[in-house]
Alanine racemase (Psychrobacter aestuarii), 732 residues
Amino acid sequence: MRTVTIHPAAITHNLHEVKRRAPQSKVLAMVKANAYGHGVSAVLPALAEADGIGVAILSEALEARSLGWDKTIGLIEGVFSEDDWHTAIKHDIGCVIHHQPQLDWALASAPPADSATRTVWLKYNTGMNRLGFDDTALISAATALHAAGYQLILTTHFANADVKAHPLNAKQIQRFTDMLAYLQTHISADIQGSLCNSAAIVSQPEHHFDWVRPGIMLYGGSPITEASAAELSLRPAMTFASQVIAIHTVKAGDAIGYSSLWTASVDTRVALISAGYGDGYPRVIDSEADVVIHGQTKAHCCPIRGRVAMDMMVIDIEAAGDDIRLGDTVTLWGDAPHVDTVASYAHTISYELLCRLSPRATRQIH
Amino acid sequence: MRTVTIHPAAITHNLHEVKRRAPQSKVLAMVKANAYGHGVSAVLPALAEADGIGVAILSEALEARSLGWDKTIGLIEGVFSEDDWHTAIKHDIGCVIHHQPQLDWALASAPPADSATRTVWLKYNTGMNRLGFDDTALISAATALHAAGYQLILTTHFANADVKAHPLNAKQIQRFTDMLAYLQTHISADIQGSLCNSAAIVSQPEHHFDWVRPGIMLYGGSPITEASAAELSLRPAMTFASQVIAIHTVKAGDAIGYSSLWTASVDTRVALISAGYGDGYPRVIDSEADVVIHGQTKAHCCPIRGRVAMDMMVIDIEAAGDDIRLGDTVTLWGDAPHVDTVASYAHTISYELLCRLSPRATRQIH
């Protein structure tokens, strides 16, 4: 048994936290990568109060439309071909334009005047050096798009927003602010701005501009290194759980599992649980990694021993006495341990764990 | 664009390699964890010549039955409840029995005489210390099951078969061989044995016994540290590919992506590709990690620069001159780079990369 339970009420709560922090801004809720692994169909109803959703690729946009999402959709990598541009127009999808071919397609085929695709998210490279136009090309693109009847949202992306004091943040903010002012003065006062991902929503409250783009915070993960999700009043939107399938005692001196990574120093009672990296739990973790087993009388925080395998892992339940029985529920991440904590065991970020869940677990909504 | 292409001909070839190495043994082809991420429905036709398939959990067994697999199914974690035991009987699923409750369920409710569930895979703990009975309990379980009319396959699992010279291997083989001889002498000469996973199929040819249980080698990954997949004549069964979605030049001194991990020492032409950890590519990789871009005239092995993001990554194409264009296909793993190589960049094994693919990529069979 392995289950992934999605909590829509937590997502709505987290959306309210975004709105509380950015009350003057519209919210583009990021649901790319299958809503960070939570499932688009499970999260869209919880995001009904968002002003729009953001997706990475066209197929994700079309899925959201097929699920009935009729408000703004922002396609953050834009289209990859001229054919895709026409598909975007057909489905009223607002596109990022970040390089010359996308600009050419937009200028060659303008959408109807009432189309949502008339709003373009024009990507400015302020220091991420990944997507976006540099200064001269951006001004030229904005001028041409405005002349062709497009409404523009200037957008950029932080490289280091998770570390508030990183010196690149101030530089990116300054470049963005200067460019937006230039475009509003020289092209159109109606040009809007969108700068902040989750991290910047929290740490750059004076720079929220017209649209904020929360991602991980909607799902209850902390976007910044300086504060936990709980300190930011964010609630985890997913519980990943399994079950005790066997209990036995490993004798002192015996090793457990692949590569005999852990050896019992004393006779040790262990529980097998039926989840592993084949479900999306990371295989390589620190020795302090733990799970929470919901025993007969209380919850126990218990360490993982040895190598996480494809379909199971071994938990040290010696400290729990007889309170843990066959069939007991095990939280891999959820309220505790928090997915941010599990990510730290694997030297990565919660985003990756959430996205890299395999389809094997049973999915439910609660 | 991100595609996962499964190659059934490679799987059949790899199955033939198993049979060539273990000509006297029956083959239980492991298709747990959605056939190591390849998709059960995609691989079953390629495994038609296997004698049976192995799955981790009951839902996987039922999926295989619903897809028309009518030969042996081995449930390697066994059932988790008495209800599941009855479901196993109903669908002719052969179960591992590795602890007392499973034994109790089997003894309380024997399947009909013609049921495939009458064959039990009795798990012996020879040193993995994860699942299975110790000596005394095993002999007692075998005696009781035989008396109740079950046919038995003694089975165990290696902890360190990937390292041929590991001293635990010889100990596990000795314990297994001794126990099988004891059971055949004292209980029934018909008791069979199953010892070898992929690694042991390759490195322990004298100990193949009645059933071998190949997993990773069916999918073209090397199971041992001493030889590559190519050296073992195994062909990769999956190609994970993406596409160049933008090309630009990063100026000397500028950093790329999240956390500004990589800084260009000279002006550097880079390609953005539309795949990332949201698709299952590992986020944390060594600096030598690379991809193969299929350019206009030839294939180029090009390094990944900066942090792999959720939906994209940046590739250094400076050495490829103008040969790489928008829309070019990029192999993340396949013939080259091999998934074993990518796994080494992430300090893990190919099994994990294959299993932790997300559902986002378009799936195809070729």
User: Anything to note?
Assistant: Chain A touches chain B through 67 residues (CB under 8 Å).
